[in-house]
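Hey L., structure's done. Input below.
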Amino acid sequence: MIKKGVITEDEKKVLDELEKNGKESIDDIAKRCGFSRQKVWRIIKSFEDDKTIWGYIGVENQEIKGLSHFILLVKRSTIPISLDKKKLLLGLLDPMLPENVKIENIYFTHGFYDGVVTFYAPNLVSAKKLVQNISMNLDKIFTEFLLLETLIPIRKSGLKNPNLKNLLDLL
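Output:
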């Protein structure tokens, strides 16, 4: 079991390789790290068991599905959050999602804005509908919203966009 926040250099190597491509075989990761297959398997298994690794995702081009990427910054009020509202927040906003809107990430932050939601939507109207739903359902909790549409993903999940050269004309 890995102590919270403390990992060895060997474990860091395995995590770095998984970040580059989580789909790689254990044998390939072991070769690049210079470790045995068994050692890599044990490290990965312990990371999964203690939730250091939450899951594995593919980084996809959502535009192919007709979706645009948005970032929503939210500012919180000073009013305490009731238990019902906390449960709603922990539900990852799912009940408020308009059709074809997909949440990518939700973060509570420290700074000028208190939260960041990144998501995909078919168009600006759907994105604004999400903001409206959050505003109506979490009124008095969030006082300010800033909606941004991303244009060109230069990096996603730490990976460079393989189509970046084709997209530079858009700048």
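DSSP finds six helices and six strands in the chain. The radius of gyration is 20 Å.

-- N.
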